[in-house]
Amino acid sequence: MTDTAPADVAAPSSGRTTLQLLRSLGSGPRGLTEAEAERRLARHGENVLPGTRPLSWPLLAARSLRDPFTVVLLCLGLVSATVAAWGTACVILVLVAVSCCLRSAGERRADSAMAGLRELVATTATVLRRPGADETASPAEHELPVSQLVPGDVVRLGPGDLIPADVRLLRAQGLTVQQAAFTGESVPADKRPVDVPADGESAHLCFQGGSVASGSASAVVLATGAGTRFAAAHRTVGAERGASAFDRSVHGISWTLIRFMLLTPPLVLMAGAALRGRGLETLPFAVAVAVGLTPEMLPVIVTTALARGSALLARTHGVIVKRLPALHDIGAVDILCVDKTGTLTQDRPAVDPARTDPDALHWAAVSAWWTLQLADLPTADALDEAVITHALAKDPAVTEAYDGITALPFDPVRRLATAVVRRPGALGTVTLAVKGSVENVLERCALDDAERASLLARAAEMSGDGLRLLAVATAERPARHRPGILPSPSGGGGSTADERGLTFTGFVAFTDALVPTAAQALRDLGERGVTVKVITGDHPGTAARALRDLGLAPGDIHTADALDALTDEELARLARRTTVFARCTPAHKARIVTALRAGGETTVGFLGDGVNDLPALRAADVGICPRDAVAAARDAADIVLAQPADRPGKDLTAIGHAITAGRHSSGNIATYLRVTLSSNLGNVIAMLSAGLLLPFLPMLPAQVLAQNLCFDAAQLSFAFDRPAAAALRRPTTLRPRDFLRFITGFGVLNAAADLATFGVLALALRSTAGPADEAAFHSGWFTENLLTQALVMLLLRTGRAPRTPGPVRWAVTSLAVVGVVLPLTPAAHPLGMTPLPPVYYALLAAVLALYAVALTAVKRRYVRQA
Ligand SMILES: Nc1ncnc2c1ncn2[C@@H]1O[C@H](COP(=O)(O)OP(=O)(O)OP(=O)(O)O)[C@@H](O)[C@H]1O
């Protein structure tokens, strides 16, 4: 067998017939043999996108150099080298090297941990393979990891499936494909086999990155992995989503700081020149002060805190975070939109015989059965399965009483499914069996207004009792019109002329139990400051009843058809005050989520499990799905609530655990930012003031950078901290303006402590004079700086002191020890420091005690006001 290069065969303008193509791929409608597939796997490699492989060390290191802080540090290093301040330049280089190494190591660890987690929720494809090397054996369907697909494989596709590679259709029934990840187009596209495709035609091709919105198909794989269009376009689902809450926060904070950093050196130079008549010789000091402001460990802390949180979440609650920043985003979520079916309810519908019309059940079963057979659907959806099971239990012959002719499977935009059947022997006529949502079926029935209104009222009453409904209708048509029966509807919904003038048959009613943990989970979310909104494709009455049973007030319910007339701004206002949106198509769900996100003030999560939730999962800041969601939803989601096998059933409380983990990690990042920035700002203010009062520099550049390095290293421990319970009670968003008040308040306090030390030093060193005075001053300030920083680390954490975790305690102790001991060691001399008189330590202890008292008092006030 031979197979052509994937890139060749993917060309849509190949003009080859399906048969020619299959031949050129060395395949056939019955797929490949296992032996041949193995050979091709060795030749083409696994079907994985290049971007999903862990990056190599050099690439990771190169990427960390692109970080804005690193770029600014390197520029400052360059400035120092230009004025021959080699010491400063070297220390900056060491700083950059250390932070890049730590960052690359952290990212590599995080990448492989994330790859392991993603593996746990990896998607599979239904593939036809023949056993061994036997060309004559019958093919069997196998559920294989998508990574194992090779060109020439024949795959089966059904609603909610991912398009696992670039494929060409062999057969299709009502197939529509959501290709937003590829084309940006949110309306699903119609797809059908074309025997001899014209140039530029692509209706017969489906590309990796898409997902089946409705219908079914079998298709042959043309290209896999790096050979797919998706890989070539270098686009990922995440990239097309726009800035998430995490990106906005970190980006905002970074740029605020960078502006400060860039302003500092000119400010120091100007102040030195104006007040002390100093020239360019102050430049290294000015550069060191700017470097002192940099939170260069921010990327390391962020990666470590998020990776630790994700790993712990997976281990303890089986929740899989597929994209690291999504852990921050879920902690920041203040609006969580959820679909109803399969999320708040079990999606295990059972027919309610007492409220079901027997005729409707009969025709619904005929429609469901023949749709399943004719459309080659890999699995029945839950409603169809319930209908078939119940009808077969009542009448085992129900499915044999007819021959199926053609079918149009369910599609969440049309909200209809239609099968065309014929009674054996009745050659002159065929019967259309149509089932779907109440409104969509009734509008196609031959009814007068009064009849329609009365049926709608009956449906509303049943929905109000919490029942899910299918409306069923039929129509007899002359068989000779068969070619006109059920032309393919458009991807945007649409209707066919055949589905007009139907005879209403009745309703099939279903009960669908609520997820047992849903009420508790919704209560918890409310208590944690998360507003829940329900966006469902179901009837408003059913949605309202479910919400009431879960203890939430549904308020005014809006149905999606009323939204189309609204502008985005009007929709955003409406969405903020509405709890339930019903009868939503996939596009409506996404539009509501986008409207809620508009303005960037709220962080919106979307929790959904079905094929009708895909666009909304992608539109949200963070997409979440339960573990039994359809493959495409699991692929589009950032977080999968896939609890361990020993905890069966849906567990919505897992979302609470994910939120806690997100807030925990973000809380630790916030602690780092508060501590490092307020301390750094205090140092800068103190150094600037002292620099203007003293005849010499208050600290040598090397000393500034050495203490910066020690402080940064100690603060890495914040990735292992435990924030206060209060920090977990509200959404945690890292907003620059929230930090500003804290940083300025505590920065000034820190500067006051530094300046008090300045007085203490003046007192303790009264007797000495000359250069020794300068070195002693530097030592004194170095020791004080590290001790105040240790104090700040301990007191400005949000967690309570007795519960300070081991790593933080160790880091604080080590920082204090280095501060006290370094000036007494041989390393003191090269750093321009000298031992201090004992009286200094006594006075310093008094300053530190006062500082601790002030810090505690101000922090208490701050917490009270927050
Ligand atoms: N297989 C089916 N055949 C015919 N009609 C169906 C089928 N499945 C669902 N429907 C009808 O379409 C309506 C909308 O279904 P859709 O899948 O969009 O939303 P849902 O699953 O009810 O709700 P949610 O959006 O909360 O998951 C249902 O209320 C039902 O009346």
Give the percentage of residues in beta strands.
Answer: 5-15%
Quote the average pLDDT: 82
End-to-end C-alpha gap:
71 Å
CATH topology tier name of the domain at 252-294 and 659-865: Calcium-transporting ATPase, transmembrane domain
The assigned structural class equals: alpha/beta
The CATH class of the domain at 252-294 and 659-865, by name, is Mainly Alpha
Shape annotation: elongated
Annotated CATH homologous superfamily of the domain at 252-294 and 659-865: Calcium-transporting ATPase, transmembrane domain
What is the total tally of β strands?
22
Radius of gyration in whole Å, from Cα? Answer: 33 Å
Helical content (DSSP H or I, runs of 4+):
40-55%
Number of helices: 28
Give the CATH architecture of the domain at 252-294 and 659-865: Up-down Bundle
Q: Largest beta sheet, briefly? A: 8 strands, mixed
What are the bound molecules? adenosine-5'-triphosphate
Main location: membrane
InterPro entries: ATPase_P-typ_cation-transptr_C, ATPase_P-typ_cation-transptr_N, ATPase_P-typ_cyto_dom_N, ATPase_P-typ_P_site, ATPase_P-typ_TM_dom_sf, ATPase_P-typ_transduc_dom_A_sf, ATPase_P-type_domA, HAD-like_sf
Protein name: Magnesium-transporting ATPase, P-type 1
Catalytic activity: Mg(2+)(out) + ATP + H2O = Mg(2+)(in) + ADP + phosphate + H(+); ATP + H2O = ADP + phosphate + H(+)
